[in-house]
C-alpha cells in the first residue's frame, strides 16, 4: 500500500491502484512522508526542537482552563457535531486515521488504507491488539472491525442517534440513506433492537463489509477520492459492540465518563459538570512511542479574565487573552508577560455572516420588511462592498487586526491543486480580487457600495419596504464579551452603511440559540464559523445548497428552503438554484481533482459575487502558553486538532521568539 499525502490528492489520478498507509508510528511528531527528502528535513527539525526542549522543564501534568460555555453536551462522539465536544472526546476514542502537525493523514486504528477503483471502494486494515478499556483502564474487549459496523448502524439509526452526523454517510455510503429512512418507519423499540451483525437488515442494505476482524471496507455511492479524510471525522469513529451489549441502547445514550468505554489516549477519570475534568493517560494506548501527559486537568472558568488570573498565579498552563489583557501587556514593555505574547495559528474555521431569508417576528408572523430587503441583490451587495470590518477585527486581534481578514467561504489550507496552489487562490482569481495588503480590506469599494445602496432603496421602496431596515442580531445573555463585540458590530454597520439604510437591534437568548432563535427563525443574520469535516470543498459549499435537507446552513440558518417564490424572491431563488447547479456540477467531477477544484472555485465565486453569504473573519487570537501550538495536530478537516498527543511544553512558558522560531521551522517543513 502506498501513502497518499492529503495535499497531493492528485496522486490518485496517477495510478489505477492507489492505496494509503504507512508503518506503525515511530513516535516522531513529524509523521512519515512518501518523499525521502521531506522525511529527512522533518527529522532534522524534530531533533533540533528536541535538543532545545531538553533544556526546559517539560510538563507531565497539564492544567488548561476552558470557559464554562464550552462544557460537554455528550460523551458519545457519534452523537456530537460541536467543537466543544470534539476537543474532549477526540482524546477518549480513537479514529481510523488521524493527522500530524503538518495536516497530513496518518495511521491511527488503521495501519493501511486505500482505494483500488478511483474512490468507489475504500479498504482500511486495522492494527491488532487495540483494547477497549473502562474508566480505570481495565481491559473490556478488543477493538475490531465489527465496532465500525456497529458505529455506522448507530449513526444511521434514526431512533438511536437522533439524526446526528448522518449527512456524510447518507451522501457517500451505499444504502445508507435507504437504511436511515427505513429506521424512521419503525417504532423506537423496533429500531433500537436492530443490530449490525452478519445477516442483519443493516448488513443487507448498507455498503460496509468486515471480511475479518481487522478489515473494514466501505462502498461509496459514487467515486469519493477524498473519503479517507472522512475517516478523521466523528461519523466514522468506532463504537464497541460489547459495550452496547453491556449498557443497552439507553445506557449508551446516557453514558458518562464512568460508564463509557475508551480506546483513545486518555480516560476521563473525574468529571464534575461545569467545574473540572481530569484526563488520565491510557496505559493500553496503541501508540507506545508517542508522548502523552500523565494527567490533564480541565478547569471550567467563568471567563478568560478569570483564566488570566489563574495563569498569573501559575495554576493553569495556558490562557487565551482578552482584548483588554492583550492591550495591557503589549502596550507595556515592562510587563512580566510582554516577551511571552504568542499569536496563535489561525484555527480551522472560516467565519461568515449568514442571512436569514425567511425571518419571523417574535409573534411568529413573517418579518416581511426584512425578508423583502434581504432577497434584493443590490441590498446584499451594498453590505458586501460597504461593510468595513476593521474595527471588529481589532476585537479579535488587537495587535495584528488585518490578519483576521477573510474574503472566502471555504477555509484556506483545506486542499491544494497538483501544483500546490491553495484552493482559495482559485476563488480569488475567479473573483478578480487583489492580494491582501495588510492595511485595508481589499473588497471594500465605497463608490460601488453607495450605488448598490441607492439602487436597493429605490427598488425596495417600490415593493413597500421601509427604511432603515431593522437587523436583529442575537447574542447570549449575560455575556459581556459577546455584548461588547455586538456593540462594535452595530457601530460598524452604522458607520459603514448609514443609519438611514440598516439599524442593528441587539437581542439576547438565554441558553440555546438553536431552540430560542434559529428554530423560530427570529434572527436576521447569524455569524458562524465552519470547520470542514473532510478534505473537499463540497463540505463547505454543500452546506449552502438549495433543496437539500442535509445542507446545514440552508436548513438551520439561511432558511432558504422555506422561501416561497414571489415577485420579490424569484431572483434570489433563481440565484440559489444556479449556485446549487454549479456545486452539483463540480461534485460530479471525480477523475480530475484539479478540474474538480476549479469547478468549485467557479461555484464559490458565484455565491460571493451574488452576496448570498458575506465572508466575515479568521481567528488568529493571542495567548500566553506553556504549550507549543505548532506541535499540535493541524488539520483543516476532522475532529481531532485538540488531541493531546506529542504536545511540546515548557513549564516556564514559551517566549514570543521561541514560538516564532517554531512557526518558521514548521512552515519550512510543511512547504517541502
**Kindly state the mean pLDDT as a whole number?**
91
Number of strands: 21
Largest sheet: 5 strands, antiparallel
Structural class: alpha+beta
Tell me, briefly, the overall form: globular
Helix count, DSSP H or I runs of 4 or more residues: 24
Helix content: 25-40%
Radius of gyration (Å) = 25 Å
Proportion in β-strands: 15-25%
N-to-C CA distance? 23 Å
Strand order of the largest sheet: 1-5-6-10-9
- Tell me the quaternary state: single chain
Low-confidence stretches: 1-55
3D structure, described in words:
The chain is of the alpha+beta class and 672 residues long. 35% of the residues lie in helices and 16% in strands. The protein has 24 helices and 21 strands. The protein has a five-stranded antiparallel sheet, covered by helices on one side. The longest helix is centred in the N-terminal third of the chain and has 19 residues, at 36-54. Residues 1-55 have low confidence and may be disordered.
Amino acid at each position: 500500500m502506498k501513502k497518499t499525502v492529503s495535499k497531493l490528492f492528485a496522486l490518485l489520478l496517477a495510478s489505477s491502484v492507489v492505496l494509503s498507509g504507512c508503518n506503525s508510528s515511530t513516535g516522531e511528531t513529524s509523521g512519515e512522508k512518501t518523499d525521502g527528502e521531506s522525511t529527512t528535513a522533518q527529522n532534522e527539525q524534530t531533533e533540533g526542537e528536541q535538543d532545545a526542549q531538553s533544556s526546559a522543564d517539560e510538563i507531565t501534568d497539564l492544567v488548561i482552563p476552558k470557559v464554562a460555555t464550552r462544557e460537554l453536551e455528550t460523551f458519545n462522539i457519534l452523537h456530537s457535531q460541536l467543537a466543544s465536544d470534539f476537543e474532549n472526546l477526540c482524546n477518549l476514542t480513537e479514529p481510523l486515521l488521524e493527522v500530524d502537525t503538518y495536516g497530513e493523514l496518518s495511521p491511527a486504528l488503521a495501519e493501511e488504507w486505500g482505494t483500488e477503483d478511483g474512490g468507489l471502494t475504500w479498504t482500511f486494515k486495522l492494527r491488532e491488539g487495540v483494547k477497549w478499556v473502562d474508566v480505570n483502564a481495565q481491559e473490556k474487549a478488543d477493538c475490531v472491525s465489527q465496532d465500525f459496523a456497529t458505529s455506522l448502524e448507530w449513526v444511521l439509526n434514526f431512533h438511536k442517534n437522533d439524526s446526528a452526523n448522518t449527512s456524510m454517510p447518507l451522501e457517500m455510503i451505499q444504502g445508507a440513506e435507504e437504511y436511515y429512512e427505513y429506521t424512521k418507519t419503525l417504532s423506537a423499540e423496533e429500531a433500537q433492537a436492530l443490530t449490525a451483525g452478519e445477516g442483519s437488515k443493516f448488513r443487507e442494505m448498507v455498503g460496509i463489509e468486515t471480511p475479518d476482524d481487522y478489515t473494514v471496507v466501505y462502498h461509496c455511492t459514487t467515486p469519493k477520492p477524498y473519503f479517507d479524510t472522512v475517516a478523521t471525522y466523528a461519523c466514522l469513529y468506532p463504537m464497541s459492540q460489547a459495550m452496547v451489549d453491556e449498557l443497552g441502547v439507553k445506557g449508551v445514550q446516557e453514558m458518562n465518563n464512568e460508564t463509557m468505554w475508551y480506546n483513545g489516549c486518555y480516560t476521563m477519570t473525574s468529571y464534575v459538570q461545569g467545574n473540572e475534568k481530569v484526563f488520565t493517560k491510557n496505559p493500553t494506548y496503541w501508540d507506545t512511542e508517542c508522548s502523552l501527559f500523565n494527567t490533564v486537568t480541565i478547569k471550567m472558568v467563568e471567563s478568560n479574565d478569570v483564566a488570566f488570573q489563574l495563569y498569573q498565579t501559575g495554576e493553569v498552563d495556558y490562557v487565551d487573552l482578552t482584548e483588554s489583557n492583550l492591550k495591557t501587556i503589549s502596550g507595556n514593555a515592562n510587563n512580566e508577560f510582554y516577551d511571552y505574547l504568542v499569536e496563535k495559528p489561525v484555527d480551522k474555521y472560516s467565519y461568515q455572516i449568514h442571512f436569514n431569508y425567511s425571518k419571523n417576528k417574535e409573534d411568529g408572523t413573517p418579518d416581511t420588511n426584512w425578508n423583502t430587503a434581504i432577497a434584493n441583490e443590490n441590498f446584499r451587495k451594498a453590505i458586501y462592498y460597504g461593510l468595513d470590518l476593521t474595527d471588529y477585527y481589532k476585537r479579535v486581534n488587537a495587535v495584528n487586526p488585518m490578519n483576521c481578514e477573510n474574503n472566502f467561504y471555504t477555509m484556506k489550507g483545506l486542499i491544494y491543486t497538483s501544483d500546490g496552489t491553495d484552493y482559495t487562490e482559485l476563488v480569488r482569481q475567479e473573483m478578480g480580487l487583489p492580494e491582501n495588503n495588510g492595511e485595508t480590506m481589499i473588497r471594500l469599494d465605497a463608490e460601488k457600495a453607495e450605488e448598490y445602496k441607492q439602487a436597493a432603496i429605490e427598488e425596495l421602496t417600490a415593493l413597500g419596504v421601509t427604511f432603515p431596515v431593522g437587523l436583529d442580531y442575537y447574542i447570549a445573555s449575560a455575556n459581556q464579551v459577546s455584548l461588547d463585540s455586538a456593540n462594535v458590530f452595530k457601530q460598524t454597520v452604522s458607520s459603514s452603511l448609514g443609519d438611514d439604510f440598516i439599524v442593528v437591534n441587539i437581542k439576547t437568548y438565554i441558553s440555546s440559540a438553536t431552540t430560542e432563535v434559529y428554530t423560530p427563525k427570529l434572527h436576521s443574520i447569524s455569524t458562524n464559523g465552519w470547520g470542514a469535516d473532510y478534505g473537499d470543498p463540497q463540505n463547505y459549499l454543500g452546506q449552502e445548497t438549495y433543496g437539500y435537507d442535509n445542507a446545514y446552513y440552508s436548513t438551520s440558518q439561511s432558511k432558504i428552503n422555506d422561501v416561497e417564490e414571489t415577485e420579490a424572491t424569484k431572483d434570489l431563488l433563481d440565484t440559489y438554484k444556479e449556485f446549487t447547479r454549479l456545486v452539483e456540477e463540480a461534485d460530479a467531477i471525480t477523475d480530475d481533482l484539479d478540474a474538480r477544484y476549479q469547478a468549485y472555485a467557479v461555484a464559490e465565486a458565484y455565491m460571493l459575487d451574488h452576496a448570498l453569504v458575506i465572508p466575515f473573519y479568521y481567528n488568529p487570537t493571542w495567548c500566553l502558553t506553556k504549550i507549543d501550538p505548532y506541535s499540535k495536530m493541524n488539520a483543516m478537516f476532522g475532529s481531532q486538532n485538540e488531541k493531546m498527543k506529542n504536545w511540546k511544553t515548557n513549564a516556564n512558558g514559551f517566549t514570543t521568539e521561541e514560538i516564532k522560531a517554531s512557526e518558521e521551522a514548521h512552515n519550512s517543513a510543511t512547504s517541502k
